[in-house]
Amino acid sequence: MKQGGGTSSRALYERGLKVIPGGVNSPVRAFGAVGGVPVVFNRGEGPYLMDVDGQRFLDLVMSWGAIILGHAHPMIVSKITEAVKSGTSFGAPCPDEVKLAEHICGVVPSVERVRMVSSGTEAVMSAIRLSRAYTQRSKILKFRGCYHGHADAMLVRAGSGVATLGLPDSPGVPPGAAGDTLVARFNDLNSVIGLFDESKEDIAAVIVEPVAGNMGMIPPAKGFLEGLRSLTSDRGALLILDEVMTGFRVGPSGAQGLYGIAPDLTTFGKVIGGGFPVGAFGGQAEIMDQMAPAGPVYQAGTLSGNPIAMRAGLATLEYLADPSVYQGLESMSYAFAEALASEAERAGIALQTSVVGGMFGFYFAEDTVNSWEEAETCDRERFASFFHGMLEAGVYLPPSPFEACFISTTHGDPEVEYFRTAVRAAMSIL
Ligand SMILES: *Cc1c(COP(=O)(O)O)cnc(C)c1O
């Protein structure tokens, strides 16, 4: 057990270790939380990934949610192939960036203007700069266990990758960069009110993952997001919904559409790039027009609005414009979560599950999980054994107990049955 990747994966990983820090380009990929050697993949098709040893896995990571239409979707492949033939980057405006921005503004009512960047990290970093400039205040309030990318100010109590490594903060973040970041408890409005009272009108923005997906998966408690909306309005702070994960994944207008919350700013990433490196941030025109060159707040990017990435993002979002897509995704997420729950019950194993749109999560825990403080009490060792049991049975789960699972429009009933069989086998040896 705990071997992970096969012979060819191991060989590539060992070569990688010599030239890439830790052998990976993003820490969670190294299997630190579950042990063993990471699996190296060279092909994806629909809901499946193929590794370099010729093994096939049902994928429940889907590039951390980005690949919502399944790997190598023929329509996306054909659109980007066409785009590539006309050049891969202009460093100047292109038609598809305008169309993608129009599309986003059309389906997300709180967004009147949107700026494209190249990652979720960049989107958040820029939205924070903008909120500080707009309010002329300096503090940012975040929630313990929420991840907002790796910009200095956000690398405080940041969930999954950071928690998995056991680094509460990162060396190299100067005290000044993180000193203006306040940390409250997710799903606990009183902890937010307390910080507002202490900080005397210096909070520029509250940033939150509307469905927390970087500490396992925790939906917002009833009234939590509504409370943040009214509190920020009353206290003159902006509300930033970080929808890098939830945007276009939990519903046609993201978590804000699902829960009826209009934030001041929204950050996007993952799904909006259709598998390419794209992020974006947007909001009301009055706030967004503070961005250069319309306003004084600087932000720029050589490859921002890249024509191939814009084509892929636009094609993906157009496909998702049909609301029935999300009904299908959500009922499929429920089917996966139900398979987990019923097999756990059969095996007498304590398990909690949650579902929102095209994502679901589970914890090996006795009680419902509502915050990081509760999430971190889950049974991590049991998760690691389960992860490897699932891998043996041909299912690729996120290699950490503090990540959500993601499906695509290509995950169907046969995949649920395949999953159920794997879960039964993996749970029988826990
Ligand atoms: C993934 C993620 C980010 C960071 O996006 P990157 O593209 O990895 O930089 C930020 N916020 C949330 C909520 C995320 O899930």
Molecular structure report:
There is one protein chain. The protein has 430 residues and is α/β, with parallel strands linked by helices. It has 2 domains: 7-68 and 323-427, Alpha-Beta Complex (Aspartate Aminotransferase, domain 1), CATH 3.90.1150.10; 74-319, Aspartate Aminotransferase, domain 2, CATH 3.40.640. It is 38% helix and 14% strand. It is built from 15 helices and 14 strands. The protein has helices spanning 7-19, 74-84, 95-107, 120-135, 160-165, 175-178, 189-198, 224-234, 254-259, 285-288, 307-319, 324-347, 372-375, 380-392, 413-428, and strands at 41-45, 48-51, 56-59, 113-117, 139-143, 181-184, 203-208, 238-242, 265-268, 279-283, 352-356, 359-363, 395-396, 405-406. The strands form 3 sheets. It has a 7-stranded mixed β-sheet with strand order 4-10-9-8-7-5-6, sandwiched between helices. It has a 4-stranded mixed β-sheet with strand order 1-2-3-13. The longest helix has 24 residues, at 324-347. It is globular and about 55 Å long. Residues 119-121, 124, 147-149, 209, 213-214, 242, 244-245, 269, 279 line the site of pyridoxal-5'-phosphate.
Brief account:
With 430 residues, the protein is α/β, with parallel strands linked by helices. The chain has helices spanning 7-19, 74-84, 95-107, 120-135, 160-165, 175-178, 189-198, 224-234, 254-259, 285-288, 307-319, 324-347, 372-375, 380-392, 413-428, and strands at 41-45, 48-51, 56-59, 113-117, 139-143, 181-184, 203-208, 238-242, 265-268, 279-283, 352-356, 359-363, 395-396, 405-406. The protein has 15 helices and 14 strands.
